[in-house]
C-alpha cells in the first residue's frame, strides 16, 4: 500500500506508536503506517467518532476484533477507544491488495483461484467465530502477503451516506453490499458471505461483477443482480452460487463454504474449528503475490539500513550526528522530530560527507529539506530504524542538554556574542559534564565549542579564587578548560574516530582486493585490526583474511600487452617472453629466477618443459626450443607458425612431446626431440596423447565419433564410448596414462547452474559433461558422468582431482565421488590451470598474465571415520568435544580433542537413511532414533519388538530409541516408542537436565510427540502436537519447540499443551533457530529472507534490529558460550561469525570453495576461543577465534610483514613494522 506524507494536522505519535505516513483516508477516518517502541510495523486506524453511541459501538467491535484468530486475517494488536482520539492498531501486512494483483497479473484460474477462495473463507470463519461481521469485504481489503491472503479492515465499519428508503446509514461499499442491507436490515455474517461470492467472481474475471456506482444507483443494480458463473467450475461454482443467493438465510455460512472448498483440496469435509482454521490457512498460504506485483514496500527501518550499508566510511561517520540533531527531546517528554538549520550540520557547505548523506536519504524520501532546514520525513523513523534507535538510546539522556546548548550558542552568536549570554553555574556544569564525558554519537560544531570555551573562560575571570569552585565545576574546568581538557578530550575522540574510520576504510579496501591482490588484502586486514581491535569491521576483516581462498597474486611487474606467458606444470614458475627476452619468475617468492635474451621478438606462444630446463617459443615461422640454463637455442624451428586461435603451446608430462596450435584452430601433438608430428595409422594428427606416446585420440577433423589409436602399432582401438567429434571440447590423459578424461557437450536441458545462489557462481548456458574412463578398456571410473563442468580439463593431486575451466569459470571435481569441491567465477579469463604438487594449492594463469593461487588444503582432510558412505551425517556435541557420525545402520563416536574413535561402532536397526541423533546438554549422552525402513530385523534401537513386527516382508517394525554414554561409547538402554504405529523417529531433543527426552515419531507423520522420563522409562504423549525438524528445549527447560514447520510449534513441557504465539499461525517463517545460553533470546534464520534475526525466547517478537542480509544466506545458528557471538552456515559450507551486540558481521571463519547447499555442523569450544566444524561427509576442523592468534596466522599466510618500500604506497594508517611485528618476510 503506497504511503502518503503526514499532513500538518496529523499527530507524530498515537500512544506507543510513531506515525510514518498515511495509508488511506476517507469520510470515516484515517489509516496510518506506524511503528512501535521496538520498531514493529503496524497499521493504526483513527476512526471518526461522532457521538457517544458510535464510540460505544466502536469499543464493542474493537474488543470483539481482538478475539479473531489470526488465520488469513490481520491481527488486532491494540484498541484504545477510551481516548479523546480513539485508535485501533492492527498487524501490518506487506503486499499488494487483490485488486492490484488482478489488475497487473490478470484473473486467477484453477488452483490459484481455489486457494484464494479458501483463504477468504478461512478469514471470514475466524471473524464470524469471534461474533463480529466484517461489513466491508471486497478485493481492496484482501492483501496478498508473503504467507498468503490476509483480510484486513474488519470489525470497524465504514459508513456510506445512503439514507432515503433505508432506516439508517448503510455500512460498506455499495457494489459489494448484500441486497438485504439496502432494505435497512442489520448486517449479519450472511452479508459477508455475499461479498465473498462477489470477491471470488472479481478474481476469476478481472472486473467487478457490479461496477462501482453511487449508492442510490447501486440499489437497483444489486436488487436485480443475476450472477454469471460460467467462468467457475465444480465446487467453487457451487460455493459462489450459494453465497450469492438473494435470501440471506439460503446462503451457506463461511464455515460451510470453507469445509466444501477444503474437501476439494484435502478430502477433509468435516472437522472442528481447531483443525479447520489451520487447514485453511495452510492451503491458502501457498498463494503468493506474483513477481513484480508491487505493494510489498520495505519498512522504513529496512530502507534506512540498506541505504546505510551503501554509505561511504565518511558518510557513516557523520550519520549519527546528522540524524540525532533531527531529534528533539526534553527530560520530561517524549522525542519528536525537529528542523535542523544547515549551519548545524558538519561541513555541509563544503560538500563533505554530510552533504552527500543528506542527498542519499533525501532521494529515498526519508529526509526532507525546507526553508534551509532538514528534518525526518517520517517521525516513525526514530523507532523504525534499529540503528537510529540505538544511537538515540546511547545519547538520550544528554540530548536535552545538547539542545539547550545549541539554542543558547545560536542566540549568543546572533546577539553579538555578549558575556551576559554565556553559560554559568549549574547550567555550565551540566553542559561541560555532558561534553567531556557523556556524549557518544554527537560531535560539537565550532559554534558550540566556541560557546563552551567562552563560558569557561568567563568563569575563570570572574572567580576570585578565595576558595575552590564547587567541586564538580572545578574539576570540569581543570579537565575541560584550564588544563586544555576539553580540547584534549576532543582530540582523543577525534583520534578514536580517525582510527575507527581508518580501520573501516582498510577493511573495505581489503575486501575489494581479496581476489585481485590477496596478499595485500590479508596484510590490510591485519592493519585494520591493529588500528581498531574492538571494531566489528576490523575483526571481521581479520577473520575473512584467515579464511579467504585466494591467497596470492603475482604478475611480471614489467609486462606489456605484447608479453607472452606460460606457467610451469607444477604452477611454481611463471615464464614471460617479450621484446626478444625470456624471464622466469618464482611465483611463490615473487622474485626473478633467470633471464636471457635472443629469443624471437615476434613470439606469440610459449611453453616451459615440466623440468624447467627447456622453453618452447612459437612465432610466425614455427616453434623453437631454448636451453633455459644457457639461453642457447636447441636446433632449428619446426612445426607450424603462430595460429590466430587461442589454443596454447604445451609440453606433455614427460617433456618429450609438445602440443602445437595449428591453423585449423586445433592443437596437435609433436615429438619435440624428433621434430615430427604424431600421426595415427590413418595419417590423422593427434589431439591428445598419453605420457609415453603410446595412445592417442583424434577428436577433430572430419565427422563421426572421436577415435582412440595405438600409436606404436598404428591400429585403431575400439572405443564406442567416445562422443562425436563435434561434441568434444577437450581430451586429457592422466599422468599415469591409465585414465582418460573427456569433456563433451550435451543437450542444454540436461544441465543446471554449476553452483547456484552466489555472485561468484559459474553459470553455464550450455551443457558440458565429464567422461572418466579407463584408457584401454573404456570402463567407467569414479567421476564418470559428472557435470555440468567447464570445457578445458587438467588432472592434479595424483590424478585424484580433475580441474575444468572455461572463460572465468573454474570447477574442480574429486574423482572418487564425482563431487564438485571447487567452483568459482574468477574476475578474469583463465589461460592455464595447475595443481601444486603438495596438493594444497591450485594456481591459475589468467589471460592478463597474472598467477592467482587458491588455497585448497582443506581438500586433503580425510573424513572420520573413513569407511562411512556418502549418505552418512554428522553432529557435533556441546563444546565440540564429541562428533557423532551416523551411517545406514551404524553410528560412530569420535573424540575431537584426542582425534580418536570412542569405543566400538554402534549398530542399530538398518533403514534406508541414517538414524536421527541428539546430544544431551552436557554432551554426556547421545540419543539415536530409528531411521525410516521397510522392514527387517530389530536391532538395539528396537529391542523388545515382537517377531511378528519385524519380518522382512511385512510392515516395518515399531520405531525405537537407543541411548549411548558418550565417554566410552557404551549403549545404556534401548526402548520402543509408546505408539507402536510409529515406524521411524523424525526428531529428538533432550531436556536441559538430560533426564527427559522428547521424541517426534514419523511414518505415519500424524503421530504426536512423546516425552520420555528416562529414569522411569515412562512416556507422555502431547496430543495434537506433531513433531517436525528443529525440535529443541529452551535452556531453562520452560519451553519445548516441537519443530519449525511451518512455524514454531511451542509446547509447555509441564502440561504438554500447545502455547499460542501472539502472532498466530503463519506469522513467523523459521528455517532454523538456536536459544542463547541464558535462555533469554533465540537466533532465527528465515527460509525466505537471507538474514539472521534475534527474537525473545518466547518467540513473541524481534529483539533489536535484524542483522544485515547476506547473498549466501545463513543457516544453523550456534551461540558462543558467553552469548556474544553467533556462527551460521552459508551456502556451500561457508561459516560466518556475527557479533550479537552490534548485529554486525564478523567475517568468515570458513570461506566456501563452492556455493551450492552443503550441510555442516558447528559447535563453539567450551571457552568460546575456538569453533569446531564438521561436514556431513565427516571432515572435522577446529578454527581459532582468538584475534591475536588469528592475526599471527594471517601474517604467516601472507608470507610475513609487508615491505617497508611498497607498504607506504598502499597504507599510511599503520607502519609496515607494526603489521606483523614478530615475523620475518618470505617475499
UniProtKB/TrEMBL annotation:
Q: Which SUPFAM superfamilies match?
A: DPP6 N-terminal domain-like, Protein kinase-like (PK-like)
Start and end residues of each stretch annotated as Disordered: 930-957, 1197-1227
Biased composition range(s): Low complexity: 930-948
Q: Does the keyword Disulfide bond apply?
A: no
- Provide the leader sequence positions: none
Identify the InterPro entries for this entry.
Kinase-like_dom_sf, nSTAND1, Prot_kinase_dom, Ser/Thr_kinase_AS, WD40/YVTN_repeat-like_dom_sf, WD40_rpt
Residue span, Protein kinase domain: 17-262
Report keywords, A-Z. Answer: ATP-binding, Kinase, Nucleotide-binding, Transferase
Q: Which SMART domains match?
A: S_TKc (SM00220), WD40 (SM00320)
Determine the domain of life of the protein's source.
Answer: Bacteria
A GO MF annotation of the entry reads: ATP binding
Tell me the PANTHER family matching this sequence.
MITOGEN-ACTIVATED PROTEIN KINASE KINASE KINASE 20-RELATED, SERINE_THREONINE-PROTEIN KINASE YBDM-RELATED
Q: What protein does this entry describe?
A: Protein kinase domain-containing protein
Q: Which organism is it from?
A: Sphaerisporangium melleum
Amino acid at each position: 500500500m503506497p504511503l502518503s506524507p503526514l499532513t500538518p494536522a496529523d499527530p507524530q505519535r498515537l500512544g506507543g506508536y510513531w506515525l510514518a505516513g498515511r495509508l488511506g483516508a476517507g469520510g470515516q477516518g484515517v489509516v496510518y503506517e506506524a511503528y512501535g517502541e521496538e520498531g514493529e510495523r503496524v497499521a493504526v486506524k483513527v476512526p471518526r467518532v461522532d457521538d457517544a453511541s458510535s464510540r460505544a459501538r466502536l469499543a464493542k467491535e474493537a474488543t470483539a476484533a481482538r478475539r479473531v484468530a489470526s488465520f488469513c486475517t490481520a491481527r488486532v494488536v491494540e484498541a484504545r477507544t477510551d481516548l479523546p482520539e480513539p485508535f485501533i492498531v492492527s498487524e501490518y501486512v506487506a503486499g499488494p491488495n487483490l485488486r492490484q494483483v488482478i489488475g497487473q497479473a490478470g484473473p486467477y484460474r484453477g488452483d490459484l483461484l481455489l486457494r484464494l477462495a479458501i483463504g477468504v473463507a478461512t478469514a471470514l470463519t475466524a471473524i464470524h467465530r469471534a461474533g463480529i461481521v466484517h461489513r466491508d469485504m471486497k478485493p481492496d481489503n484482501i492483501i496478498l502477503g508473503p504467507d498468503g491472503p490476509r483480510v484486513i479492515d474488519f470489525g470497524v465499519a465504514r459508513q456510506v451516506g445512503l439514507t432515503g428508503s433505508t432506516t439508517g446509514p448503510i455500512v460498506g461499499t455499495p457494489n459489494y453490499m448484500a441486497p438485504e442491507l439496502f432494505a435497512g436490515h442489520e448486517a449479519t455474517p450472511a452479508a459477508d458471505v455475499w461479498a465473498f461470492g462477489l470477491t471470488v467472481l472479481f478474481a476469476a474475471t478481472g472486473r467487478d461483477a457490479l461496477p462501482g456506482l453511487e449508492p442510490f444507483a447501486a440499489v437497483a443494480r444489486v436488487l436485480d443482480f443475476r450472477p454469471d458463473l460460467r467462468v467457475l467450475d465444480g465446487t467453487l461454482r457451487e460455493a459462489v452460487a450459494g453465497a450469492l443467493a438473494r435470501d440471506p438465510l439460503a446462503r451457506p455460512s463461511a464455515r460451510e463454504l470453507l469445509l466444501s472448498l477444503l474437501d476439494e483440496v484435502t478430502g477433509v469435509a468435516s472437522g472442528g474449528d481447531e483443525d479447520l482454521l489451520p487447514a485453511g490457512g495452510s492451503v491458502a498460504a501457498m498463494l503468493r503475490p506474483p513477481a513484480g506485483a508491487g505493494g510489498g514496500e520495505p519498512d522504513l527501518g529496512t530502507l534506512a539500513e540498506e541505504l546505510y550499508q551503501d554509505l561511504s566510511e565518511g558518510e557513516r561517520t557523520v550519520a549519527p550526528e546528522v540524524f540525532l540533531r533531527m531529534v528533539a527531546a526534553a527530560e520530561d517528554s517524549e522525542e519528536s522530530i525537529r528542523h535542523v538549520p544547515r549551519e548545524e550540520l558538519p561541513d555541509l557547505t563544503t560538500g563533505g560527507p554530510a552533504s552527500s548523506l543528506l542527498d542519499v536519504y533525501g532521494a529515498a524520501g526519508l529526509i526532507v529539506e525546507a526553508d534551509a532546514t532538514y528534518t525526518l520525513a517520517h517521525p516513525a523513523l526514530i523507532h523504525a530504524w534499529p540503528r537510529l534507535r540505538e544511537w538515540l538510546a546511547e545519547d538520550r539522556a544528554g540530548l536535552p542538554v545538547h539542545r539547550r546548548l545549541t539554542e543558547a550558542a545560536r542566540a549568543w552568536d546572533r546577539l553579538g556574542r555578549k558575556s551576559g549570554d554565556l553559560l554559568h553555574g549549574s547550567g555550565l556544569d551540566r553542559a561541560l559534564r555532558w561534553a567531556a564525558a557523556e556524549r557518544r554519537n554527537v560531535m560539537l560544531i565550532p559554534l558550540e565549542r566556541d560557546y563552551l570555551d567562552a563560558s569557561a573562560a568567563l568563569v575563570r575571570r570572574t572567580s576570585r579564587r578565595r576558595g575552590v569552585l564547587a567541586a564538580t565545576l572545578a574539576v570540569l574546568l581543570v579537565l575541560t578548560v584550564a588544563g586544555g581538557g576539553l580540547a584534549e578530550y576532543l582530540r582523543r575522540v577525534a583520534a578514536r574516530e580517525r582510527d575507527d574510520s581508518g580501520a573501516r576504510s582498510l577493511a573495505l579496501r581489503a575486501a575489494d582486493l581479496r581476489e585481485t591482490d590477496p596478499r595485500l588484502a590479508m596484510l590490510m586486514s591485519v592493519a585494520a585490526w591493529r588500528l581498531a581491535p574492538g571494531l566489528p569491521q576490523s575483526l571481521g576483516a581479520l577473520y575473512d583474511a584467515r579464511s579467504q581462498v585466494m591467497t596470492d597474486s603475482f604478475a611480471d611487474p614489467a609486462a606489456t600487452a605484447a608479453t607472452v606467458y606460460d606457467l610451469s606444470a607444477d604452477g611454481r614458475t611463471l615464464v614471460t617472453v617479450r621484446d626478444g627476452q625470456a624471464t622466469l619468475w618464482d611465483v611463490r617468492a615473487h622474485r626473478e629466477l633467470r633471464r636471457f635474451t635472443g629469443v624471437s621478438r615476434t613470439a606469440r606462444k610459449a611453453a616451459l618443459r615440466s623440468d624447467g630446463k627447456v622453453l618452447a617459443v612459437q612465432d610466425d615461422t614455427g616453434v623453437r626450443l631454448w636451453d633455459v640454463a644457457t639461453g642457447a637455442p636447441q636446433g632449428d624451428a619446426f612445426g607450424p607458425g603462430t595460429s590466430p586461435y587461442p589454443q596454447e603451446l604445451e609440453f606433455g608430462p614427460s617433456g618429450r612431446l609438445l602440443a602445437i596450435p595449428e591453423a585449423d584452430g586445433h592443437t596437435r601433438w609433436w615429438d619435440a626431440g624428433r621434430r615430427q608430428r604424431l600421426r595415427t595409422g590413418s595419417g590423422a594428427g593427434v589431439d591428445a596423447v598419453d605420457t609415453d606416446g603410446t595412445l592417442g585420440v583424434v577428436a577433430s577433423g572430419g565427422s563421426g565419433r572421436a577415435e582412440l589409436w595405438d600409436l606404436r602399432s598404428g591400429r585403431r582401438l575400439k572405443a564406442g564410448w567416445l562422443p562425436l567429434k563435434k561434441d568434444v571440447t577437450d581430451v586429457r590423459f592422466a599422468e599415469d596414462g591409465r585414465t582418460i578424461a573427456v569433456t563433451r557437450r550435451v543437450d542444454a536441458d540436461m544441465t543446471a547452474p554449476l553452483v547456484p545462489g552466489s555472485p561468484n557462481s559459474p553459470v553455464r548456458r550450455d551443457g558440458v559433461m565429464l567422461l572418466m574412463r579407463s584408457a584401454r578398456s573404456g570402463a567407467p571410473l569414479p567421476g564418470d558422468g559428472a557435470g555440468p563442468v567447464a570445457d578445458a580439463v587438467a588432472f592434479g593431486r595424483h590424478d585424484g582431482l580433475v580441474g575444468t575451466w572455461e572463460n572465468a569459470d573454474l570447477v574442480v571435481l574429486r574423482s572418487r565421488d564425482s563431487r564438485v569441491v571447487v567452483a568459482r567465477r574468477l574476475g578474469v579469463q583463465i589461460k592455464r590451470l595447475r595443481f601444486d604438487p603438495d596438493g594444497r594449492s591450485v594456481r591459475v594463469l589468467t589471460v592478463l598474465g597474472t598467477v592467482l593461487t587458491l588455497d585448497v588444503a582443506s581438500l586433503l582432510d580425510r573424513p572420520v571415520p573413513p569407511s562411512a558412505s556418502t549418505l552418512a551425517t554428522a553432529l557435533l556435541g556441546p563444546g565440540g568435544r564429541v562428533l557423532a557420525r551416523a551411517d545406514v545402520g551404524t553410528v560412530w563416536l569420535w573424540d575431537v580433542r584426542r582425534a580418536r574413535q570412542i569405543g566400538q561402532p554402534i549398530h542399530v536397526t538398518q533403514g534406508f537413511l541414517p538414524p536421527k541423533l541428539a546430544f544431551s546438554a552436557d554432551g554426556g549422552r547421545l540419543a539415536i532414533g530409528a531411521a525410516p525402513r521397510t522392514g527387517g530385523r530389530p536391532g538395539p534401537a528396537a529391542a523388545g519388538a515382537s517377531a511378528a513386527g519385524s519380518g522382512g516382508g511385512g510392515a516395518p517394525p515399531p520405531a525405537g530409541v537407543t541411548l549411548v554414554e558418550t565417554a566410552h561409547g557404551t549403549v545404556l538402554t534401548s526402548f520402543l516408542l509408546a505408539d507402536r504405529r510409529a515406524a521411524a523417529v523424525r526428531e529428538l531433543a533432550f531436556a536441559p537436565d538430560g533426564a527427559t527426552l522428547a521424541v517426534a515419531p514419523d511414518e505415519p507423520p500424524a503421530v504426536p510427540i512423546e516425552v520420555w522420563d528416562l529414569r522411569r522409562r515412562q512416556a507422555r504423549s502431547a496430543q495434537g502436537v506433531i513433531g517436525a525438524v528443529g525440535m529443541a528445549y529452551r535452556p531453562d527447560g520452560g519451553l519445548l519447540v516441537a519443530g519449525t514447520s511451518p512455524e514454531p510449534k511451542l509446547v509447555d513441557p509441564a502440561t504438554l499443551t500447545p502455547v499460542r504465539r501472539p502472532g498466530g499461525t503463519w506469522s513467523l517463517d523459521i528455517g532454523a533457530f538456536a536459544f542463547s545460553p541464558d535462555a533469554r533470546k533465540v537466533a532465527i534464520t528465515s527460509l525466505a529472507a537471507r538474514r539472521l534475526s534475534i527474537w525473545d525466547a518466547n518467540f513473541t517478537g524481534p529483539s533489536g534490529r535484524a542483522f544485515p542480509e547476506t547473498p549466501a544466506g545463513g543457516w544453523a545458528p550456534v551461540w558462543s558460550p558467553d552469548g556474544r557471538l553467533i556462527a551460521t552456515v552459508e551456502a556451500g559450507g561457508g561459516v560466518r561469525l556475527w557479533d550479537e551486540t552490534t548485529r554486525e558481521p564478523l567475517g568468515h571463519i570458513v570461506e566456501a570453495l563452492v556455493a551450492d547447499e552443503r550441510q555442516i555442523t558447528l559447535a563453539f569450544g567450551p571457552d568460546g576461543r575456538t569453533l569446531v566444524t564438521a561436514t556431513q561427509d565427516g571432515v572435522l576442523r577446529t578454527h581459532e577465534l582468538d584475534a591475536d592468534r588469528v592475526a599471527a596466522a594471517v601474517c604467516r599466510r601472507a608470507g610475513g610483514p609487508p615491505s617497508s618500500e611498497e607498504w607506504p604506497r598502499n597504507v599510511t594508517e599503520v607502519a609496515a613494522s607494526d603489521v606483523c611485528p614478530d615475523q620475518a618476510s618470505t617475499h
